[in-house]
TrEMBL record:
<protein>
    <recommendedName>
        <fullName>SH2 domain-containing protein</fullName>
    </recommendedName>
</protein>
<dbReference type="InterPro" id="IPR036860">
    <property type="entry name" value="SH2_dom_sf"/>
</dbReference>
<dbReference type="InterPro" id="IPR000980">
    <property type="entry name" value="SH2"/>
</dbReference>
<dbReference type="GO" id="GO:0007169">
    <property type="term" value="P:cell surface receptor protein tyrosine kinase signaling pathway"/>
</dbReference>
<dbReference type="Pfam" id="PF00017">
    <property type="entry name" value="SH2"/>
</dbReference>
<dbReference type="GO" id="GO:0005737">
    <property type="term" value="C:cytoplasm"/>
</dbReference>
<feature type="domain" description="SH2">
    <location>
        <begin position="47"/>
        <end position="154"/>
    </location>
</feature>
<feature type="region of interest" description="Disordered">
    <location>
        <begin position="1"/>
        <end position="40"/>
    </location>
</feature>
<dbReference type="GO" id="GO:0035556">
    <property type="term" value="P:intracellular signal transduction"/>
</dbReference>
<keyword id="KW-0727">SH2 domain</keyword>
<feature type="compositionally biased region" description="Pro residues">
    <location>
        <begin position="22"/>
        <end position="31"/>
    </location>
</feature>
<dbReference type="InterPro" id="IPR051751">
    <property type="entry name" value="Immunoreceptor_sig_adapters"/>
</dbReference>
């Protein structure tokens, strides 16, 4: 039996040792501390990212890489009327949906197409784990619509 040809160049790393790990298919989400700002107290840390950038949150969703991956982060607007943003991955696209606070209730989206109200963000997320969320692609101008449930909390 013939010997396999000898390859020249550096030896590939041995991932069986405890100090080396194989590279992940995507970079893992940034380990950003969850700031739990005053408005975020009491929100489930499994899907609440706190004060993270849109880019950090998107990287976390793409790391999960499943339709229905989601997280809630503090809104970059920093206003009491729009305290959070829900980010959802569906069919390879990341959707950013504002969470509005009006009076004692929370609403998703701009409100232009009507919206359901919820007593809290937890109830809103729980509702959409079994009731599909309408996603509208406003980025490319077509307004293409799809639906998905919030299935996979993205770690931050």
């Amino acid at each position: 039996m013939a010997k396999p040809p000898q390859l020249k160049g550096p030896k590939p790393p041995d991932y069986r040792s405890s100090s080396s790990k194989p590279p992940a298919p995507y970079p893992p989400p940034s380990m950003v501390p969850n700031t739990m700002s005053g408005t975020g107290k009491g929100i489930d840390p499994e899907w609440y990212g706190g004060l993270v950038t849109r880019g950090q949150a998107e990287a976390s969703l793409r790391w999960v890489n499943k339709d229905g991956a989601f997280l809630v982060r503090d809104s970059s607007k920093g206003s009491s009327e729009q305290p959070y943003t829900l980010m959802v991955l569906n069919q390879g696209k990341v959707y950013n949906i504002q969470i509005r606070h009006q009076g004692n209730t929370y609403h998703l989206g701009t409100g232009l197409m009507g919206s359901e109200s919820f007593p809290g963000v937890e109830e809103m997320i729980d509702h959409h784990t079994h009731t599909p969320l309408l996603l509208i692609d406003m980025e490319n101008g077509t307004g293409a619509q799809s639906q998905c449930c919030l299935l996979h909390p993205a770690p931050l």
